[in-house]
Amino acid sequence: MDYRISGIYNRCVTIELNNEDSFHTKAPVSVSINGEKIYDTDRNVIYLDGLTPDTTYEVEINGEKQTFKTKSETVLLDVSEFGAAGDGIHDDTAAIQAAISACPAGGTVYIPAGKYRCAPIFLKSCITVYIDTGAEIVGETDRDKYPKLPGMVTCQDEVHEISFASWEGNPLTSYASLFTAIDAKDIDIIGRGTINGNADNGDWWENPKVKRGAWRPNTFFTVRCSHIRMAGVTIMNSPAWTIHPYYSDRLEFCCISIRNPADSPNTDGIDPESCSNVLISGTVIDVGDDCIAIKSGKYYMAKYHHKPSSDIVVRNCLFKNGHGAVTIGSEIAGGVNHVNVTQCVFEGTDRGVRIKTRRGRGKDSVIDDLKFDHIVMNDIPMPVTVNMFYFCDPDGHSKYVQDKKAYEVDDMTPSIGKISISDTVCHGVDASLLCVEGLPEMPVESIELKGISADFIPCGKRVDMTPVMMDQFEPISGIPIFAENVKQLTVDDVSVTGEELNEDVLAGIADSSFKDYTVRNRRKNGTKNSSISQGCKEL
Asked: Catalytic amino acids?
């Protein structure tokens, strides 16, 4: 069994199998440590904890052995020794904060089993927070106990400025998150415990778009941080976006679980904003909005603090429910590039791959080099959507944003480069396999579908729906490919099956290549098992 030790911590380790399976292995594998069997698993990414620091271990998976040595640790500080009650009644904020503040570099703050009622906790550099099995950190419901972080502060030189908070792409005053890290580095959050934002018992989800005191907090927020890792923990009931790294680099989220109710507002799973070198692996996300949304702020931040999100890898993850499995945008004025999503399973999200931008994001809003491969999409009615008319923000329905006539390309025009989706299986398609709406003045550069199989749900169960959130788009159903304003559209080795499928709709396509494209049971031409070389209808 070929595998690699992907993450070594002081008290746990993550292991990733080297295969082409998506999230699950084809057959269970046996995992042992030092000759003792731990468990059987069917996941490609394995989390093992309960280890001792600075110790060499031998791991064996299906007969193959490897050794690793855990990181060293200077000290283990138990929060109960600092006065944390862990009874769910007392306020344990000060005790846990004291343990973190007192912890020397290389030390671990240990949170044993219990329920810890807390207001926001602020992290610092060079520590580990170990939330053990049975430990639950529960967020306070009283918003008056949450400090406010200013969106932007002017420096003493009256020239520079520094941001401490962000709300939907703008530097706006927000409540501090349950865990907050500012200008910190080398932090590990590990263990099988739970971080519970407790928003279901507060008023965070009431009138969610109304600012009351400050904008809603995340559950985990970092700004200008580096080398942040999280492994094993569960995060749930977030007041807003669950994990929100902001202008941070070298981040890893491995084998974590994120759960928010399906009807909870704006409770995205992980939203890297203007971040680079991010790895998300072995993670399960089931939320009320996008599971992952990669962002880079709105126009102000791109103009004065430009930083694209780049070099982001999402691998061996399971995404359930929510509006999109992996989303790019729409707060994307700084651009996004070099994103690789592979070996993932999408289940029951409204959309699978979801890319969204609009006029006004600006010339720095360059989306490019997005690769999706070895994806399994189950019950995804709209597997791939690309929308350059997204109707967000107060002016989202204005003529400027929604007009389908070509405008002059200027400093406010966004662009989308190359997107490729390969080796992917889509089950339960309804509206369309691919729906693209590029700007007439700035068509999408390139979209490639290669090695795709898709099956549509039966006609009697289809519901007309709108794959892209824009004005002037009528609901559709049973259209394999709908693409407007694309410079290069490549369809290679794509098979689509369904009852009475409509013709493809193509318009404003400068160049297209259809090879080995098979659509069975077309409605328009009345044939079955037909191989369609072009199969398009001009708008």
From this structure: 289, 323
Q: Is there a contact between 416 and 386 (Cβ–Cβ < 8 Å)?
A: yes
Using CB atoms within 10 A of its CB, is residue 164 exposed (0-12), middle (13-18) or buried (19+)?
buried
Q: Which token pair is 408?
A: 């002059």
Name the pairing type of β-strands 418-429 and 479-501.
unpaired
Q: SS3 for 323?
A: coil
Rounded to whole angstroms, how far apart are CA atoms 435 and 420? 14
CA 437 to chain centre: 23
d(CA 476, CA 382) in angstroms, rounded, equals 11
Mean pLDDT for each 10-residue chunk of the chain (539 residues)? 95 97 96 96 97 98 96 98 98 98 98 98 98 98 97 95 97 98 98 98 96 97 98 98 98 98 96 98 97 98 97 98 95 98 97 98 98 98 98 94 97 98 97 98 98 95 93 95 98 96 96 95 49 34
Q: Provide φ and ψ at 460, rounded to 5°.
A: -65, -15
Q: Give the separation between CA 179 and CA 199, rounded to whole angstroms.
A: 15
Instruction: Label the pairing between strands 114-118 and 135-139.
Output: parallel
* pLDDT of res. 1: 81
Reduced to 3 states (helix: H, G, I; strand: E, B; else coil), residue 102 is: helix
Radius of gyration for the alpha carbons in the chain, expressed in angstroms and rounded: 24
Residue 391 has which token pair? Answer: 């109707």
> What DSSP string runs through 367-421?
EEEEEEEEEEEES-SEEEEEES----STTTTSHHHH--SPPPP-TT--EE-EEEE
| Rounded Cα gap, residues 47 and 13, in angstroms | 6
For the chain, how many residues are written? Answer: 539
